[in-house]
Design brief:
Blueprint (H helix, E strand, L loop, with lengths): L1 E2 L2 E4 L10 H23 L1 H7 L5 H28 L8 H18 L8 H33 L3 H32 L3 H25 L5 E4 L6 H8 L3 H31 L4 H29 L1 H17 L10 H37 L4 H29 L15 H28 L4 H20 L4
Antiparallel strand pairs: 1-2, 2-3
Helix pairs in contact: 1-4, 1-5, 1-6, 1-7, 3-5, 3-13, 4-5, 4-7, 5-12, 5-13, 6-7, 6-10, 6-12, 9-12, 9-13, 9-14, 10-11, 10-12, 11-12, 11-14, 12-13, 12-15, 13-14
């Protein structure tokens, strides 16, 4: 049926519910991209500084450069997917293409050739990062646009995004295993290379599965392109719910990426955990995240997405602050209690944040009549990737400024007291402050289920009035 400047393809029940198989198939697409994001946010920084001999400052510059590139490609990819017409729809072909490019780039990042010149090595790593993030963009922008098209149900979108979160955390488990895999394979550059090729295969398989598994998904097809790209981007910033959501997510993801990059330095260098125990810690947290997803879903249906989102964010900030008190002499159980608590609160954050995005996208359509799911989703993805670049980059700059000593033989270099203080601040204080600041944005967010229903009713009433008016 026609709707505004687009037409719907694919069947959807009247209540907006989706088959469980389709939810799973959609969610599976997040696995490969989560492997990319979490591995790049975790083991990549120490790989560059402690195995390739790249200085912390240069490594930070590489990460920032790759993300500045993303700030250009994300909106471009959103417009391209909005305007694409193929037999497979305007989103799905990019799922396969992005998976292929992302897998290739990922393998290249962790398999640098033996270059005698450090400048050439840095240039190689930058090129490989750009290829990887191009694939990530080609896949992720159309992928994030799909939920707003697949269903109009406020709570079904939460369920759909919950399945995405499940596979994000399966991907995070895979990424967390990189530490143990590398150590088991020899804890050297070759071990990182084997890990890179193995994970690249998983990235490709996850993307292909999502492409074939979402063939029956409800989608919109463009009917025309009445609005110039510049006008679409300018007017998008008038979407207050989207702007507030992006502000909150940027704060949270910046805190998450900063603490994630600092996590290896803190847990291995300060607390004295081995790579294997660090992997067990990450596995514990991720398994708790998965276990709590149904709990947060039920809570959101009863109390609303926004309130639950704020509660989870506040809890995460408070627990993160306790890292300032941690020492190598603490019982191991204290460390893992934090893993459980952080996992429980992170579960709510990971479910509620993305669940609000399709609502903000639909709000945009109801207010403007523009079908630009890809363009708006690109802003969300840009915020995500920018935060995951700035976080590790700031971490590395912070370490460099406080005298962190890089090397080529692993993580066992003795550090000055100034670097130890910097690691504590980066692991505890900075992420907690950023999560706390995100609450200011969420406090002002007011797009509820009732408000969306009222906008839909108003739009339907206007359409009926227009249809009944006699033509001149």
């Amino acid at each position: 049926m026609k709707n505004g400047n687009s037409q719907w393809r694919g069947a959807a029940p009247a209540d907006g519910s989706l088959p469980q198989s389709l939810r799973i198939n959609f969610g599976a697409g997040a696995l490969g991209m989560a492997v990319i994001l979490n591995t790049m946010g975790g083991i990549l920084a120490p790989f560059m500084t402690n195995f390739l001999g790249i200085s912390a400052g240069a490594a930070a510059t590489l990460l920032l450069a790759s993300k500045l590139y993303d700030m250009v490609t994300d909106p471009l990819m959103g417009v391209i997917s909005d305007r694409t017409t193929t037999r497979w729809g305007r989103r799905r072909p990019f799922l396969m293409l992005g998976g292929v490019i992302g897998a290739l780039g990922f393998a290249l990042v962790f398999n640098p050739p033996a270059l005698g010149n450090q400048d050439l090595l840095i240039a190689y790593v930058l090129g490989a990062l750009l290829i990887t993030y191009t694939g990530y963009t080609v896949f992720n922008i159309p992928y994030l646009a799909m939920p707003a098209e697949m269903t109009r149900s406020y709570h079904e979108r939460t369920t759909l995004m919950s399945h995405r979160v499940v596979f994000i955390n399966i991907g995070a488990l895979v990424a967390a295993s990189s530490f143990a895999m590398v150590q088991w394979l020899g804890d050297d550059r070759a071990a990182h290379g084997t890990m890179g090729w193995t994970f690249a295969a998983l990235i490709l398989l996850g993307s292909a599965y999502c492409f074939f598994g979402t063939a029956a998904a409800r989608q919109t097809s463009p009917k025309g392109h009445a609005w110039p790209v510049g006008a679409q981007i300018r007017t998008a910033f008038n979407n207050k719910p989207l702007a507030l959501l992006l502000g909150a997510k940027f704060c949270q993801l910046l805190g998450l990426s900063a603490s994630g990059a600092m996590g290896v330095y803190f847990k291995v260098g300060i607390l004295g955990l081995s790579y294997q125990l660090t992997t067990v810690y990450l596995f514990t947290s991720i398994l708790v995240i998965l276990a709590f997803i149904p709990v947060w879903n039920m809570a959101a249906r009863r109390h609303g997405k926004r309130l639950i989102y704020m509660a989870a964010s506040a809890g995460y900030a408070l627990v993160t602050l306790t890292w300032l008190l941690a020492t190598a002499d603490d019982p191991l159980s204290w460390i893992f209690i934090r893993a459980v608590l952080l996992g429980a609160f992170a579960s709510g954050i990971l479910v509620m944040g993305p669940a609000l995005l399709p609502d903000a996208v639909e709000y945009d359509y109801l207010k403007t009549g523009m079908r630009r799911e890809g363009t708006l989703s690109s802003f969300y993805a840009t915020v995500e990737k920018l935060a995951f670049a700035i976080g590790p980059a700031l971490t590395l700059c912070f370490l460099s400024g406080f005298g962190y000593q890089e090397g080529t033989e692993g993580m066992q270099i003795e550090q000055p007291q100034s670097a130890i203080i910097a690691i504590y601040i980066g692991a505890g204080l900075i992420p907690a402050a950023l999560y706390g600041f995100s609450l200011a944005f969420l406090w002002k967010y007011d797009l509820s289920e009732d408000r969306l229903k009222a906008l839909r009713s108003r739009g339907n009433a206007a359409g009926r009035e227009s249809a009944s008016r006699p033509s001149s």
